[in-house]
Amino acid sequence: MRAPDAGRRSATTIRDGGQERAGDLLGRDFTASRPYGRWVADFTYVATWSGIVHVAFVVDVFSRAIVGWSAATISAHPAHGTVAEPWTRPDRRSGRT
Hints:
Layout: E1 39-48, E2 51-60, E3 66-72
Antiparallel strand pairs: 1-2, 2-3
């Protein structure tokens, strides 16, 4: 067993200066008046014994509950392009998805 190097850092995001940044669709307003009315997404990585795992989360702004997630061992995660498409959370009140 070997401990990770304390001074070593990996680059998780390398910005392409030639690309335009995505617009701020929420206007930095992270409030919602009802559940499932506004979702936000976040991408992160987790270091595991077998390598880096990239994880995408979709969070309901009203309840702060994770309504969907996906994980992959590649940096070209399919959720980078389509955040909300693959995820649906069952509506526990009605049994619908």
